[in-house]
Amino acid sequence: MTAASVSSKSGRTAASLRLWGRLHAHGPVLGLVLLCVAGTLLNPEFATLDNALNVLTRTAFIGIIAVGMCFVIVSGGIDLSVGSMAALIAGCVIMLMNMLAPRGWPPVAIVVAGMAFAVLLGAVFGLAHGLLITRGRIEPFIVTLGTLGIYRAGLTYFADGGALTLDNALADAYGPVYYASLLGVPVPVWVFALVAGAGGLILNRTAYGRYVQAIGSSEQVARYAAVNVDRVKVLTYALLGVCVGMATLLYVPRLGSASPTTGLLWELEAIAAVIVGGTALRGGAGSIAGTVVGAVLLSVISNILNLTNIISVYLNAAVQGFVIIAVAFTQRRR
Fold first, then answer.
1. Is 62 within 8 Å of 220 (Cβ atoms)?
2. Nearest one of 42, 110, 77, 65 to 253, comparing CA atoms
3. Longest dimension (CA), the chain
4. Which of 71, 101, 133, 199 is most open to solvent, judged by the fewest CB atoms within 10 Å of its CB?
5. Which residues contact residue 107 at a Cβ distance below 8 angstroms, ignoring those fewer than 6 apart?
6. E strands along 71-131, which residues?
7. What is the mean pLDDT of each run of 10 residues along the chain (334 residues)?
8. Measuring CA to CA, which residue among 84, 48, 210 is closest to residue 156?
9. Helices 187-205 and 49-74, interaxial angle, to 10°?
10. Is 319 helix (H, G, I), strand (E, B) or coil?
């Protein structure tokens, strides 16, 4: 084989790798576009503005959690408890607000206190995860698998096996947080956009974001580079907890109640959104923009299934599970 033929083959290989890299980077966007085209062909109602806003509003809860989950997965970790955490936070917020109602507080003040409490409680839970993982030297999978059961059981205990319901007067004051619109766009969508924008800036434009990626690439090398790995991990799990709290404070006014089924399988949806968005399962690489696209893509799949009845809506979680496995297989092959 001549040097010229070797050089030509090497050039074709490099070009193929660059093409694959571009396709992989834009794969979620391309998949979302194709799904939207398919949804429109299957049911014209899919392409309406009302349906688009409905999809984005329902995406907001999982999307906000997925932004925080992206940081955790990029750092090489995982959190299986976010759905149960959201359920317990929702229950605690409702109990706090109902407790403050008879004390003569204005409804708006009670709502603000409840929203602040949701974010604070999420940060505390995330901080506990981070400390157990770093100080306790326990694997993230084990820690969050344990707290998944603790949080869900805690809510079930407080609700006595039933549901915790928000006082009617407080529900009316809290309702606009979910149902109101700004410039024709629902409030949850604005909050999702702000959280995603802030997450993108933090991950890509700050030293903390670079540390998160470095730890996910090689924790040992990051330690050699004088990165405070334990502190970064604790902050990462606390950040995810804050995102869960923000998603919960938007979710509570939707139904005005919390039950043992609240937030069920949210962890599956959040992890799926991050993985579908192109974040590497082993950590070290990922993007908030891809995570946002992944969250919207999963919501579009669910919306199409609801509008077309191709398969039972009860199989939505199964579809998401297949998506996770397929993407993980693709990443492994790559």
1. no
2. 110
3. 88
4. 101
5. 101, 169, 170, 172, 173
6. none
7. 52 54 64 84 85 91 95 94 95 94 89 95 96 94 95 94 90 91 92 96 94 92 91 96 96 91 90 88 86 91 82 76 75 58
8. 84
9. 30
10. helix
